[in-house]
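Researcher: We plan to redesign the surface later, but first we want a full-length starting point. Tokens attached.
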């Protein structure tokens, strides 16, 4: 029976406990240990049973206990002190951003399909969401004028449990939004703020919830309201679950609905940041709004919108990109073509590398690329991968010049560093360790921490991980209906004093969670070494539709239950942020074994480094740029073999060798005080070198300087005076495209024909037919470098050529000079690019003219 009316029941708090409400509904508690301790002190058992959700704690706690705390002078004193610090934090305007960019009227809108803020907010699946959560936490810390936009999912991702055979099963518990630390956004009359999104033959409505993350508001859309039919209510049910039609509808809600939600709240973003391509439809909605409010054409509005849009790609393979069939795009966007007076082909070209290919699906990543002026990958190596992955979008452009830069990911340290390590850093590094976290001088003080103290705290964290693992594994066995003897054994697994290796991440085949199991007998011998034993803690989820990933989990689980290793190997179910914190805070070694070039960045190893653990990883993602021999271990040297089975064989053997010959002996090499001095030295080097670099504050600062600030300024300039500048740029692009076929590189000459001495100059002249193109509209360049074994120019350098007064009929002479500093075989060629100071990249116009016959010289 449905109610005739519903009411929202909120917790009753005695007046002197009222500050708890504000603390509970600001997710700053996710990184402030003293706020967490305050809620745990309120009722420790309830805090754990409520999944570390302070909003639910306040709703569940008994009034008697509340009144007891209200009369507890010590508790009230602690509450008032913490609340005062919280208010000071919220009011503080002397932030990093204000100091760097004062004055600034920018607003940055950060869109992501998932946000990993806390295990109490299960609207994330893995690394992408955790990165997004850390991003907005850092934006709060640094004072960026940023708002987040996402979706609040009724079922979230899924909760994992394993059968007795180790096969992954999924549960989808319902999120009760009224008991999450989020608040429904309401109109002045108390009704929910809603936005409408056009769907075929109907409108779908979404209400808005707000999560406050420190100083940053995060707005989350929800279609599960009575205004929608049941099918549309289900759009925001689950994350990454369902067919392409449902996925496209979710991305309409996120992109189009997100922009409309901001407008309904009176927020007009200067910059929109698309965290992956899921939100790329936001660019189309911004274009639509610009055409209406500014009375400009679609293509003028496209220039304005793209000027203020940033796209971050996280994928390393084509399969990781959302692509939709043209039939679905027609179904949901055909009215849009007509409304904006553009053709179907012009629209589809926005999501295609080859607009002439009618069979090419519509790519959300390419849409994001075409509707942004800044694009980046998430590590240096991933930048190389991404430029190759999207090379078809820039034909004839050398791969290393494709306009996709990189900003390496980082972590929000105080969300991931254990309380004991935080206290240790406070004592020896001072509050600067998080206030000035990118300062290398601060982290050099790690050397001043006494070995005994660092090791004692680390051993305590390992002991706590073992205790946590035992209890969690016992609960897993209870759920499986295990016998009492098995339950008793569960409390005896693992050893708090031995070398502990952790592996925790999404389980996909390319991550090779089973690489360590390649030789089971050798692994069992390593684990059960009588003098130098080792133990493993594994955790991870496979996507519900990823059969091979589930099979990997079953393989790992079955090995872990073998009688000869079951005390040394545990698989923990339902990997989430809580399990991750226990693991990264307690392991000695963090293992990472992806196929090289397939992990975009990864951040779990960064979390381990902050907690004093050491990385053992393939040279991929962030570790490719973070690795040094004194900081941790690399599996292999970055080799890639054509045969994947052979690669697995080579790298599994390398992994076993590292464990047996270096890592295990190093860990158990103790002095008279039973301290592994060499190991501790490596811990300190790892902390001092990695922490000032691989943190989220450094990352967000790079976004502010390299992405947000220039995009915001460009967007405002393009929008001013009725979008005059955008119109001028568009007119110029149309002109240069029309005149481009007139350009011709007639001849290329050089001052020396074949041999040049090191230190000599080589003068290059190009005779160019300009036609109606002016020299100011183009950039003529020498493209030169060493010639590799394939006859290609490598590590190229680009040099400008200047027009001279000399002419030959219709030909103009351009001249430039190459200086040679190294001997060998070198080559050069000449090219022409469009030039306009308002272009974000000369390659985005899609025009490039190369000389037909590159020349090679011996130096």
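Model: Full-length starting sequence:
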């Amino acid at each position: 029976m449905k109610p005739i009316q519903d009411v929202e029941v909120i917790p009753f708090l005695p007046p002197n406990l009222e500050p708890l409400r504000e603390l509970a509904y600001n997710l700053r508690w996710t990184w402030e240990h003293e706020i967490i301790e305050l809620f745990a002190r309120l009722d420790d058992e309830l805090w754990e049973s409520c999944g570390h959700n302070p909003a639910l704690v306040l709703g569940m706690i008994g009034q008697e206990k509340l009144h007891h705390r209200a009369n507890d002078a010590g508790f009230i004193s602690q509450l008032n002190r913490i609340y005062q610090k919280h208010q000071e934090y919220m009011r503080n305007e002397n932030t990093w951003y204000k100091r760097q960019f004062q004055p600034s009227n920018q607003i940055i809108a950060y869109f992501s399909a998932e946000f990993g803020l806390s295990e109490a907010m299960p609207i994330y699946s893995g690394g992408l969401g955790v990165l997004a959560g850390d991003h907005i936490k850092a934006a709060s810390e640094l004072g960026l004028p940023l708002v987040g936009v996402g979706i609040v999912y009724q079922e979230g991702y899924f909760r994992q449990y394993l059968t007795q055979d180790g096969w992954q099963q999924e549960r989808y518990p319902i999120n009760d939004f009224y008991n999450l630390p989020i608040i429904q956004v309401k109109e002045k009359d108390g009704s929910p703020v809603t936005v409408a999104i056009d769907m075929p033959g109907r409108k779908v409505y979404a209400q808005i919830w707000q999560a406050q993350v420190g100083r940053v508001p995060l707005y989350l859309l929800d279609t599960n309201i009575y205004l929608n039919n049941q099918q549309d209510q289900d759009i925001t049910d689950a994350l990454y679950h369902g067919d392409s039609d449902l996925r496209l509808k979710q991305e309409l809600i996120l992109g189009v609905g997100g922009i409309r939600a901001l407008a309904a709240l009176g927020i007009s973003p200067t910059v929109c940041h698309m965290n992956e391509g899921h939100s790329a439809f936001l660019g189309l909605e911004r274009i639509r709004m610009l055409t209406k409010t500014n009375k400009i054409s679609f293509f003028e509005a496209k220039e304005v919108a793209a000027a203020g849009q940033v796209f971050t790609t996280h994928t390393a393979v084509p399969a990781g990109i959302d692509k939709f069939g043209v039939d679905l795009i027609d179904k949901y966007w055909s009215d849009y073509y007509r409304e904006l007076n553009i053709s179907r082909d012009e629209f589809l070209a926005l999501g295609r590398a080859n607009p002439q290919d009618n069979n090419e699906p519509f790519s959300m990543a390419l849409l994001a690329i075409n509707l942004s002026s800044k694009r980046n990958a998430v590590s240096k190596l991933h930048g190389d991968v991404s430029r190759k992955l999207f090379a078809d979008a820039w034909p004839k452009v050398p791969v290393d010049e494709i306009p996709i830069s990189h900003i390496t990911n980082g972590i929000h340290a105080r969300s991931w560093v254990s309380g004991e390590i935080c206290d240790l850093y406070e004592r020896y590094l001072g509050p600067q360790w998080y206030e000035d976290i990118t300062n290398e001088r601060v982290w050099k003080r790690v050397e001043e921490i006494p070995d005994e103290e660092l090791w004692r705290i680390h051993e305590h964290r390992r002991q706590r991980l073992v205790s946590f693992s035992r209890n969690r594994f016992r609960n897993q066995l209870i759920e499986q209906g295990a016998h009492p003897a098995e339950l008793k054994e569960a409390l005896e697994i693992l050893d708090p004093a031995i070398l502990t290796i952790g592996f925790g991440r999404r389980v996909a085949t390319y991550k090779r969670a089973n690489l360590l199991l390649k030789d089971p007998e050798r692994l069992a011998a390593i684990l059960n070494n009588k003098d130098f034993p080792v133990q493993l803690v594994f955790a991870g989820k496979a996507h519900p539709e990823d059969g091979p990933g589930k099979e990997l989990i079953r393989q790992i689980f079955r090995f872990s239950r073998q009688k000869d290793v079951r005390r040394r190997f545990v698989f923990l179910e339902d990997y989430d942020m809580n399990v991750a914190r226990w693991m990264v805070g307690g392991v000695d070694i963090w293992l990472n074994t992806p196929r090289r070039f397939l992990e975009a960045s990864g951040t779990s190893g960064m979390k381990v480094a902050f907690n004093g653990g050491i990385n053992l990883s393939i040279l991929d993602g962030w570790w490719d740029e973070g690795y040094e021999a004194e900081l941790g271990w690399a599996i292999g040297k970055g080799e890639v073999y054509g045969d994947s089975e052979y690669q697995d064989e080579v790298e599994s053997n390398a992994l076993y060798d590292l464990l047996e010959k270096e890592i295990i002996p190093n860990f158990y090499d103790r002095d008279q005080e039973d301290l592994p001095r060499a190991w501790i030295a490596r811990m300190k080097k790892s902390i001092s070198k990695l922490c000032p670099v691989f943190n989220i504050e450094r990352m967000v600062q790079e976004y502010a300087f390299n992405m947000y600030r220039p995009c915001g300024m460009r967007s405002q300039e393009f929008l001013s005076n009725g979008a005059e500048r955008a119109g001028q740029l568009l007119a110029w692009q149309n002109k240069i495209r029309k005149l481009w076929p007139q350009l011709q590189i007639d001849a290329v000459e050089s001052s020396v024909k074949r041999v040049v001495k090191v230190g000599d100059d080589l003068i290059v002249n190009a005779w160019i037919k300009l036609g109606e193109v002016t020299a100011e509209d183009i950039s003529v360049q020498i493209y030169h470098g060493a010639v590799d074994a394939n006859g290609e120019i490598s590590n190229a350098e680009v040099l400008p050529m200047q027009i001279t007064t000399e002419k030959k009929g219709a030909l103009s002479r351009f001249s430039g000079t190459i200086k040679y500093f190294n001997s060998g075989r070198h080559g050069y060629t000449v090219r022409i690019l469009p030039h306009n100071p308002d272009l974000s990249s000369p390659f985005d116009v899609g025009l490039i003219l190369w000389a037909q016959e590159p020349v090679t010289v011996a130096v």
